[in-house]
User: Fold Serine acetyltransferase from Leucobacter insecticola.
Amino acid sequence: MSLFSRVREDIQAARAGDPAARGAAEIFFVYSGLHAVWWHRVSHALWARGMRFLPRALSQLTRFFTGIEIHPGATIGRRLFIDHGMGVVIGETAVVGDDVLIYHGVTLGGTGHDGGKRHPTIGDRVVIGAGAKLLGNIELGHDCAVGSNAVVVHSAPPWTTLTGIPAQGRPRRGAPAEMPDAADFYMI
Assistant:
């Protein structure tokens, strides 16, 4: 996929995720969430080539200008939209799926100084509300929704809504009928 196709795809995702979006030019020039994602792609490509200082410096410069910190080692899927992104932090071993929507103040963080995989893995089409904290090597299945200010420290299956501190899961409305019964998983 060409660079221009990816940019066009990101702009369309922003239009779909933000009802206040007025046009492609406005999104291209003033949406800091997209700028952070675009610069992350550059720093991630350098990181993948074994560079360490330059990608980290680029991610910190991007953080200075956007208020969004994405570690160059994080794996980000297609069409990630970070709306009102100030204060978003995405850790080094985080994995974010396609078509994810993240609001301001979200942390995809670790819980200690352990090596290896220590940040969350987020499935496709997940919505993460403002101020939510997802901590540790956990997995959120596809189509989950995380409520604002929730603190998520346990994995959740697809089509789960997570709210509270610590977050409790319940089936998300609109789940397909063929979804297996996960009643034993939910702590409600």
Q: What stands out?
A: The chain is about 30% helix and 20% strand. The domain at 3-171 is CATH 2.160.10.10 (UDP N-Acetylglucosamine Acyltransferase; domain 1).
